[in-house]
Amino acid sequence: MNFRNFKMVGYVIYGRGAFNQLDEILLPNRKGGAPMIFLVDHFFEGKELAKRVPAKGKDKIIFVDVTYEPKTSYVDSIASQLKEEFGSVSGVIGIGGGSAMDLAKAVSLMMTNPGSSADYQGWDLVKCPGVYKAGIPTLSGTGAEVSRTTVLTGPEKKLGMNSDFTPFDQIILDPELTANAPVNQRFYTGMDCYIHCIESLTGTYLNEFSKSYGEKALQLCREVYVNKDSWDEESDDKLMMASYDGGMSIAYSQVGVAHAVSYGLSYLLGIKHGIGNCIVFNQLEEFYPEGVREFKYMVEKNQVDIPRNICANLTDEQFDKMIDVSLVMKPLWENALGKDWEKLMNRDRLRKLYERL
Ligand code: NAD
Ligand code: ZN
Questions:
Q1: Which atom of ligand 1 is closest in space to residue 182's alpha carbon?
Q2: pTM for the whole thing?
Q3: How far, in whole angstroms, is CA 43 from its chain's centroid?
């Protein structure tokens, strides 16, 4: 048996108002005059949070466009712009949802690794540690704050830069930052966490480490989306920890069918991760009967819309592309269906699944 020796986030700070300590946290990580680069979700341009970013000297705030999920070309262009302007930087700080945090991780790595980020999409391809990087979530659910990947859409595939160099050196978990997220978005991203839990807890890779985090995260999701009648500060506190715990759970297990299928959707149709997972999970009774039942209850209780019939007008070629992207995710399928997954999931069955979405 060869156990995975996995790299975790370096430092964690949790609490309402923790964002105020960012300046102090960055100080010992500043290298001479080299600037800190803040990649801030474009939603915050002109908002109060942007004014609280402790930029000084040559530091730069870049409001990143997260209308689409991060592309390798976008990562490459930010990294080359920074190299041209500054030579080297002290660090890259991502402030936003999973997209802004993933951009920060990837740009940090591309400051020191040659070529294009597309060259590193896969498992353990990154050669050198990146520059110092910190992540500050403003939406809870993806677990991107703790994961060893940064999910990118490249010219050929949607796949993460999975490596021991990918996790953040520092994360700041401040639930105040998620307070004003729109209800639908908060639900879709929150359900990403719920789905992580179900996929991890029912998967064949499960062990006590993953289970202990997965069960706690699932309990927190239920407290927020099933038990509570309205959203309050405590909901933000709980969901932020659910996201972290859910991320820790999949770190030592894996996600499953919903993620494998939704990767195809987002590659072809540009559907974002949270909502894409919801669209897929809604149709996965055959794989996750109890989880899907509870999911439908939460959708109804929280009065959210899950789009239907999104694959109605696709061509054979388009279905094939989604199937290709999905089947690349071998560890996800193996976790969900076991070692012999290829006997259980083939192109035909997957096509029928996509047709139902
Ligand atoms: P997101 O980062 O794509 O943001 C969704 C929308 O919410 C954007 O319009 C953004 O501007 C807005 N937003 C963010 N914070 C807000 C706030 N506090 N108030 C109002 N609006 C706010 O959404 P997400 O679901 O957090 O992240 C999805 C991304 O994360 C995808 O790109 C996905 O691939 C990635 N992801 C990564 C991992 C990982 O382990 N690295 C895991 C899961 C998902
Ligand atoms: Zn996810």
A1: 20
A2: 0.96
A3: 18
Ligand in nearest proximity to the CA of 278: 2
243 CB contacts (<8 Å, ≥6 apart)?
Answer: 137, 140, 141, 142, 143, 145, 193, 217
CATH superfamily of this structure's domain 183-356: Dehydroquinate synthase-like - alpha domain (1.20.1090.10)
Phi, psi (degrees; rounded to nearest 5) at 238: -65, -45
Question: Is residue 304 pLDDT above 90, yes or no?
Answer: yes
Q: Which atom of ligand 1 is nearest to the CA of 140?
A: 26
Letter string b/e over residues 149-167, b meaning 16 or more CB atoms within 10 A of that residue's CB? bbbbbbeebbbbbbbebbb
pLDDT, tens digit, for every residue of 108-133?
Answer: 999 999 999 999 999 999 999 999 99
Largest separation between any pair of C-alpha atoms in the chain: 59
Strand-pair partners of 133: 92
State pLDDT tens for residues 35-48.
999 999 999 999 99
Q: Is 11-178 a domain of CATH 3.40.50.1110?
A: no
